[in-house]
Input
Amino acid sequence: MAETNEAKVVLPGLGKKAKIVVGVFVVAAILFLLVLWRGLGSDPTKVPSAFLGQPALSFEVKWLQGQQHLKTPRPEGFGLADFKGRPVILNFWASWCYSCRAEASDFEAFWQRYKDKGLVVAGIAIQDTPDAALQFAHSFGKTYMLGLDAEDGKSAIDYGVTGVPETFFINKDGIVIHKEAGPVSKELLAQYADELLK
Output
């Protein structure tokens, strides 16, 4: 009999612990499902950037092409300081990037339309070689400024680039007004060009 009474005393305690564990698990599962549901309903390319509304970071890259688009180009390369007072569309790309092909023609057509309006288009090839990047640029007829990121990828890392293409829209005051992850369209380029040139 004593053994049975001891069992009755111990089991209710275990039952309360089990209820607490199950309750915590249910609450955690509900929270997880809510987060998952919210995530599935959002566009992964529209992740807000910590750079929005902030000054664009300085960068330095080696020339690939486009020295003629600067009044006083530096022989070693170009950086954000070279565009002071001018709006900039800064595109991170790579020759091995399939999505970069999708936007290449739109970028060049956009550049041809806006190059005389004071807008800068600059591309930075990342994780690439000079030969492969230039071959890609020539095959898609790119004529705007292109640079090659350092071997350690400093510019891309500083800008928080997680994949290519990624494009930053920087106003004449050097403030990032938009970041686009993934290929840009001619419509999007025109939309932000109008905003940058206000």
Summary: The two ends are 89 Å apart (CA to CA). The chain has two domains: 2-42, 46-196. Confidence is low (pLDDT under 50) at residues 6-11, 41-45. The longest helix spans residues 2-40.
